[in-house]
Design brief:
Structural class: mainly alpha
Protein name: RNase H type-1 domain-containing protein
Helix content: 40-55%
Largest sheet: 2 strands, parallel
Radius of gyration: 15 Å
Organism: Araneus ventricosus (Orbweaver spider)
């Protein structure tokens, strides 16, 4: 699931850049999955499923643009673990991490 999330993020970013007429935009990608980051950064003989998705991610992004984010400061962490609407608002999730 984390690998698919990385792929969807890469595709979404690529679509947004194309919609902006291909303007030069510096992009940063973050994942709290060290496994996904290892797949993206290393040239290994992964399983077919992993290899196909990693190849597409590498085609759309630079492996150097991917960085690790600790789960607790990952903007997607809170809603993916389940919370009430009150918690979501009170924890300032909409503002994102300080970086």
């Amino acid at each position: 699931m984390e690998l698919l999330a990385a792929l969807v993020g890469a595709r979404l970013t690529n679509s947004a850049i194309e919609a902006l007429n291909g303007k030069e935009v510096k992009c940063y990608y973050r994942s709290d999955s060290t496994t996904v980051l290892a797949w993206i950064s290393r040239e290994e003989n992964w399983s077919v499923f992993v290899r196909n998705r990693v190849q597409e991610i590498r085609k759309l992004t630079s492996p150097l643009a991917w960085n690790h984010v600790v789960g607790e400061i990952n903007p997607a962490y809170l809603p993916s673990r389940g919370c009430t609407a009150t918690q979501l608002i009170s924890l300032r999730w909409w503002e994102g991490p300080k970086w």
